[in-house]
Amino acid sequence: VRTRPGYAAPVASRCYSHGKVETDEEFNARWVTYFSKPDIDGWELRKGMNTLIGYDLVPEPKVLDSALRACRRLNDLASAIRILEAVKDKAGPHKDIYPYLIQELQPTLAELGISTPEELGIDKS
Amino acid sequence: MSLAKPMMRGLLAKRLRFHLPIAFGLSFVAAIAFKYMVTEPRKQAYADFYKQYDSVKEFNAMREAGIFQSVRPSGE
Predict the structure, then answer these.
(1) What are the residues whose beta carbons fall under 8 Å from the beta carbon of B72, sequence distance 6 or more?
(2) How many separate domains does chain B show?
(3) Domains, chain A, ranges and CATH?
(4) Does the CB of B5 have a partner CB in chain A at under 8 Å?
(5) Which coarse location class describes where this protein primarily resides (chain A) (predicted)?
(6) pLDDT, tens digit, for every residue of B59-73?
(7) Is B10 within a domain?
(8) What was the pLDDT predicted at B63?
(9) Interchain contact A95–B (C-beta under 8 A)
(10) Each residue of A28-50: pLDDT tens digit?
(11) What is the ipTM of this complex?
């Protein structure tokens, strides 16, 4: 029996055996709130994204939506597109994840005028 | 056609849960194989060599060949 916990959910990286484990929904809500800060600055955006990318998960569409809107508030189109590239890379060999994310984010991408890397032709090296 | 939500969490954990036992298992097997196919035969070869080894005879053969400085061949 491996020593790591058997449930896939917890991503708060401390492995305490006692204490409340954060649910997926609490995790998502925390990150949506983080990126929803009206006066978020560039550093906080980058820090948030780098931390989020460090977890063993691909961020949910609603978290990414919040991050993309933060990019809009910061007039940072480059970071918005980079976020899309990052989550595609996070999915690794699981090729079904990125198309799903783009499908879910389509309204946001249209509203904010964000092109996908594929539309820009920068997804091929 | 609307895509269904795929599994998005714990993908690395799942991969490791599968591959790590295999990795440790194969490493262990490799170590066992090396022990019994290399180190044990090697140790046995040394043991067999030295079981019948006559060090005095070997010393005298070397002495006659003149390779020592401390003792010359018996003829000189």
Answers:
(1) B63, B66
(2) 1
(3) 24-120 (1.25.40.40)
(4) yes
(5) mitochondrion
(6) 999 999 999 999 999
(7) no
(8) 96
(9) no
(10) 999 999 999 999 999 999 999 99
(11) 0.77
Residues of A in contact with B13 (CB under 8 A): 4, 8, 56
Residue B41 falls inside a structural domain: yes
B25 touches chain A (CB under 8 A): no
Q: Please state, in angstroms and rounded to a whole number, the distance separating the CA atoms of residues A14 and A4.
A: 11
Taking the Cβ of residue A92 and every Cβ of chain B, the question of whether any pair is shorter than 8 Å is answered with: yes
Reported as type and span, the H/E element at residue B26 is helix B11-34
Q: What element of type H or E holds A40?
A: none
Q: List helix spans (H) across chain A.
A: 24-35, 42-53, 61-73, 77-90, 97-112, 117-120
Tokens standing for residue A59: 């961020």
Cβ contact B14–A8 (<8 Å):
yes
Find the domain containing B48 and state its range.
36-75
Q: What is the C-alpha to C-alpha distance for residues A121 and A105, in angstroms, rounded to an integer? A: 19
Question: For a pLDDT cut of 70, what percent of chain B falls above it?
Answer: 100
